[in-house]
UniProtKB/TrEMBL annotation, chain B:
Membrane spanning residue stretches: 146-170
Membrane topology term: Single-pass type I membrane protein
Gene Ontology biological process terms in this record: positive regulation of amino acid transport
Localisation per UniProt entry: Cell membrane
Entry GO terms, CC: extracellular exosome; plasma membrane
Protein name: Collectrin, amino acid transport regulator
Organism for this UniProt entry: Taeniopygia guttata (Zebra finch)
Main location: membrane
Length: 598, 224
């Protein structure tokens, strides 16, 4: 007797699984950055257009293929055409690459979560130096949050080739992260189906709490106004449209085979058209929601830094000219500065290099994305809130849920083809296969816990999946529309759901989406070829920072990362980050610590 | 006589002025930020506070060197500004018109910094001795770092969950295997009538058995 395929207990589990997979860290740390870079509120226009043009159709396509073929990615594409099982294999390989490095983010989230149970938070203050007369030098030069991230979490090496040793604390957290993933996928859909209730809904609870907290913070309105002011001239910039298309594409997680795997566990009569629309709308709405939260936090942080900057200047002037306390305030600062410049020209001229021009605009302009946003900017904002431990625990728990939700999809994409293949599944039970996959990924993932691990992480993050996914999805669309035949596909959908897809879906599948993907592919390929020597940013702990710009300049460095997935660092300024180039594994030092251009 | 007295006073005053001036040898600058520290409860800096300061410095010197020769009059203040900041020196009472070496003063102040701060309700940051670095207190660190404790708890929970799931899976598997071998043994022993692979004893022949697949198909048939 054939064992029947395990199914989701109810359609809600399937929807939650898709939401949990699609709503991931990219919604929190990449969309707000894109929104800020490409015209604020105006970015929503290309974003929604791309959602309708490529997001929904491609999502529906993958879900329908999975539900119809009732196999993982390899089996499904083999049924479509025996020559196309390579597409399935490619999906599995890309998913494998992703799961190798993605779980490190969960390990970092665990690390921060465990460290949130202290008072004061460990990233709130700098540690003391050896003779207890001041703070640690590296920490003084940047900020306590960056020091905690680069030195105490990553213990980052100065370059890629100085690999250093495996950090045992990070290795422990990575092992724990893999154990959690194993626990969730152990029983297949039976266990995954229960877990996704939590991983899909908890982030929304935390986001709502943060929305309420964020909007009531001092200075949050500055951030929101700044973000939502539409700069419609950005719409004429082609990069805006490309970024919108890219973001929709990668945010939904197409091409990895996870959606096919999830849909293959559906009842054949499940209405995947409705679910596709629901999941894509929820994904985009979550991005917008998360960016509201992020921008209120930005506004708070920027206002706080601006006011600290003003207070520092006031203190400097008070001390230098021995003026009475309280005579200089934020309001009369500019007039007093002019007055002092006129009265004591010589001393003022001596002080000039130290007097910073504090600007709220400049603070708001520092756009950050990626791990920098999640682990540095947010923890900086959290440490200045009341009861920071509570908010810290909530936030990192949310990151953990988002990351684990995405990991469940990735591992499902790898395991479903393996458990479908009779060769393997007949010999080993499901638990053993899952265990072996998790164990192998964990061992390989130890690379990312070494001192140079973050550089490897950046390389994988930028190059592991991008071009391959575009190609995979392109071949998928063409295969379904032209090789399998769109009429045959239509009939299959009619059998499953009971209604034929209308002209919108057919036009998108047959013409618009493939054209969009081809143009994205060509753009990225040419960008890659034209970039020449690839570069990466490195952390230099020994550099003497004359100007003392600290946190501000380091943020600028990470903000000069381009929007595309291929790093294109333009104008580095002084700070602890230096730029090195990586040319086929032979890193060259291009620039070391001078302000200016490369 | 009066003239001599006047001369002596002026000599002393000039000597004091010589000893205590900004950037003099063995002189230290002090900067006080009362409003920052105390806000609305700030007191005004006047001659009484200066007297207290001189008394505290003299106390520090006495405690440090354990010879009770330093008097309040040995501590000289000058150049008091609105900020509030001023310079002070400690003169040597045994030898006139010389100042106590700066290193001694520094060591004395360092040793008694806490007492001096508390006398003025200030802290290291708001009562600054500009050339004297303060010894910062390290943060309180528990013997086992907190994060390891939390890590251990979470790890134990997760491992317990995994073991539970695996063991229950193995038990279910064994039970299924035992059932199927039992059924095979049963079939070998007694010639049992089988209906579709199910022994008739298992079927409830009295109540009948509704097969769900066929029952649903009733609706497919057109009614006559």
């Amino acid at each position: 007797m054939e064992k029947s395929r395990p199914l989701w207990d109810n359609p809600l589990q399937f929807v939650f699984a898709c939401i949990s997979y699609a709503v991931g860290l990219g919604n929190v740390w990449r969309f707000p950055y894109l929104c800020q870079m490409y015209g604020g509120g105006g970015f929503l226009i290309p974003y929604l257009i791309m959602l309708i043009a490529e997001g929904m159709p491609l999502l529906y396509l993958e879900l329908a293929v999975g539900q119809r073929m009732r196999q993982g990615s390899i089996g499904a594409w083999k049924i479509i055409s025996p020559y196309l099982c390579g597409v399935g294999v490619a999906s599995v390989v890309v998913s494998f690459f992703l799961s190798m490095y993605y779980n490190v983010i969960n390990a970092w989230a665990f690390w921060y979560l465990f460290h949130s149970f202290q008072d004061p938070l460990p990233w709130a203050t700098c540690p003391l130096n050896s003779n207890r007369t001041g703070y640690e030098e590296e920490c003084e030069k940047t900020s306590s949050t960056q020091y905690f991230w680069y030195r105490q979490t990553l213990n980052i090496a100065p370059s890629l080739e100085a690999s250093g040793s495996v950090q045992w604390e990070q290795a422990l957290c990575l092992t724990l992260a893999w154990l959690v993933v194993y626990l969730c996928i152990l029983r297949g859909t039976a266990s995954t189906g229960k877990v996704v209730y939590v991983t899909a809904s908890l982030p929304y609870c935390v986001l709502i709490i943060y929305l309420i907290r964020g909007l009531t913070l001092h200075g949050a309105v500055n951030g929101l106004v700044y973000m939502f002011t539409p700069k419609l001239e950005q719409l004429s910039n082609p990069k805006t449209w490309i970024s919108a298309a890219t973001q929709i594409f990668f945010s939904l997680g197409l091409g990895f085979g996870s959606l096919i795997a999830f849909a293959s566990y559906n009842e054949p009569s499940n209405n995947c058209q409705r679910h596709a629309v629901i999941v894509s709308l929820i994904n985009s709405t979550t991005s917008i929601f998360a960016s509201i939260v992020t921008f209120s936090i930005y506004g708070f942080k920027a206002t706080f830094n601006y006011e600290s900057c003003i207070n520092k200047v006031i203190l400097l002037l008070l001390n230098a000219f021995d003026l009475e306390e309280g005579s200089l305030t934020a309001d009369n600062l500019n007039e007093m500065k002019d007055h002092l410049m006129a009265t004591y020209p010589q001393e003022y001229a001596q002080l000039m290099p130290q007097i910073k021009n504090c600007s709220l605009e400049a603070e708001l302009d520092t756009a950050v994305q990626g791990t920098g946003l999640a682990f540095i900017v947010y923890s900086e904002a959290i440490k200045n809130m009341e009861v920071p431990q509570l908010y810290s625990v909530l936030y990192f728990f949310m990151l953990l849920m988002l990351g684990i939700g995405s990991m469940l999809g990735n591992t499902a994409a790898i395991l479903t083809p393996l458990t479908d293949s009779r060769v393997i599944a007949s010999r080993f039970p499901k638990e053993v296969i899952s265990g072996v996959v998790c164990f192998m990924n964990c061992i390989i993932g130890l690379i990312f816990t070494m001192e140079a691990g973050n550089y490897w992480f950046d390389i994988f993050n930028d190059y592991a999946a991008t071009l391959s996914l575009l190609l995979i999805v392109l071949v998928e669309t063409i295969a379904v529309c032209y090789i399998y035949g769109i009429r045959r596909f239509e009939k299959d959908l009619y059998t499953m759901i009971g209604c034929k897809p209308n002209w919108y879906w057919k036009i998108m599948w047959a013409f618009v989406s493939p054209l969009l993907i081809i143009s994205l592919f060509i753009f990225y390929l040419t960008d890659y070829i034209l970039t020449g020597t690839l570069q990466y940013q490195a952390w230099d702990a020994t550099q003497v920072n004359v100007l003392g710009l600290g946190f501000f300049s380091v943020l600028n460095l990470s903000s000069c990362k381009d929007t595309s997935f291929f790093p294109n660092y333009t104008v580095p300024q002084s700070g602890l980050l230096e730029v090195r180039s990586w040319n086929q594994g032979h890193p060259l030092i291009l620039w070391k610590g001078k302000p200016g251009k490369t | 006589m009066l003239r001599a007295l006047l001369l002596l006073v002026s000599v002393v005053a000039i000597a004091h002025a010589e000893l205590c001036k900004p950037d003099a040898q063995n002189a230290f600058k002090v900067r006080i930020s009362i409003k920052t520290a105390l806000g609305d409860n700030a007191y005004a800096w006047d001659a009484n506070e200066e007297y207290l300061f001189r008394a505290m410095v003299a106390f520090a010197m006495r405690r440090y060197s354990s010879k009770s020769t330093t008097q309040i009059s040995n501590v000289l203040l000058c150049n008091v500004t609105d900020r509030v900041s001023f310079w002070f020196v400690v003169t040597d009472s045994s030898k006139n018109v010389t100042t106590v070496p700066g290193s001694e003063v520094e060591a004395a102040i360092r040793m008694n910094r806490n007492r001096i701060n508390n006398a003025f309700l200030l802290s290291d940051k708001t009562l600054q001795f500009l050339k004297i670095t303060s010894t910062l207190s390290p943060p309180v660190e528990p013997s086992t770092p907190v994060w390891i404790i939390v890590f251990g708890v979470v790890l134990c929970l997760i491992v317990a969950g995994i073991v539970f799931l695996i063991v229950s899976g193995i038990q279910k598997h064994k039970k299924k295997n035992k059932e199927s071998t039992e059924r095979e043994n049963l079939e070998e022993k007694v010639e049992v009538t089988l209906e579709n692979g199910i022994p008739c004893e298992a079927l409830d022949l009295k109540a009948g058995h509704i097969n769900g697949v066929f029952a649903a198909e009733d609706e497919r048939f057109t009614s006559l």
